């Protein structure tokens, strides 16, 4: 059975978490790298922007579906081993992208890259769940998240920079080098350290592991919460740049920079997470996160000029990562003997919620406008925070 270290996080675990944060950074960069490349890809392969967008679709589908495969593999073979193997395999996927002779081959290579990189974040979360006691886990998860946040914020900028100055293929060469570096360092860690934190589980059918997680009412509650959170946050964020461009007349690039404040707000949380967690505790952190998210969407809807959106997006990032970090911590306890499977389901439901949010948001925007969509999130997210806070308190009061 996986177990947690009861003492404060030791230096070895800190080193592994740093490398896993690096893996999360590369994974997040990989997901966003192609967004600004579409004009360059369309030009090189003599296609339309819509056809070039196939490279993004292929990545997203492979990334989302393969979440479900890696969890049981991590539980059986060891989470850190699978993360290391996935990092090294992603190196070849990135190289294949750089060498692709056609748009179809690039889409295939991007699909391969999305499939292998899908293991990195959920299994890293699961490893931390195994390695770090619950007392220290939320702050450790927040430090890990800093890599993911920086990757999400910088991925598009990195892709655009290489497309403009060196050619889009070089972006994938650099990406491959980052995958290789993190993979080699993790492999060295596996060779030199005898960590008790990622214990291999007995062989079990994948369906059995998923039944084990889904049969737990607590797990079903957390999965529902993460799906709703994703619908009301990331699903809605997709419409912020177009809203700012249409309402205030700023460029799409300018609007994208404004939305990047979400990442900076998230980094503000991760930098001081240990103090936040100690001062507020998980329940109040969830409640305050929901309230801040509601306030941010109200500011977006009611702001009279685009600088209000800068403040709103910064507050949004702070509130989102308060709420999300709390959900992550709870997710690491959904199924301690099948933690890899549980965290893969967690990641899949978050991905599913984003897709639902974008699709449902399109209907709301067409019927009510973006302000109607922001208003719905402003009502839903504080409620979500309150419900989660009550759930946490109820669990504390429950008899053991």
Describe the structure.
- The chain is about 85% helix and about 0% strand.
- The protein has about 400 residues and is mostly helical.
- The chain has two domains: about 1-205, Growth Hormone, Chain: A, CATH 1.20.1250.20; about 205-400, Growth Hormone, Chain: A (Up-down Bundle).
- It is globular.
- The model is unreliable at about 1-5 and about 195-200 (pLDDT under 50).
List keywords for this structure.
400 residues; mainly alpha; Growth Hormone, Chain: A; 19 helices; 83% helix; 0% strand
CATH class of the largest domain: Mainly Alpha
Q: Give the fraction of residues assigned to helices.
A: over 70%
Number of strands: 0
Compute the average pLDDT: 84
Please outline the major beta sheet. Answer: none
Low-confidence stretches: 1-7, 195-201
Total tally of structural domains: 2
**Helical/strand content category:** mainly alpha
Sketch the topology as an H/E string, one letter per element: HHHHHHHHHHHHHHHHHHH
Distance between the termini: 19 Å
CATH architecture of the largest domain: Up-down Bundle
CATH fold node name of the largest domain: Growth Hormone, Chain: A
In CATH terms, the superfamily of the largest domain is: MFS general substrate transporter like domains
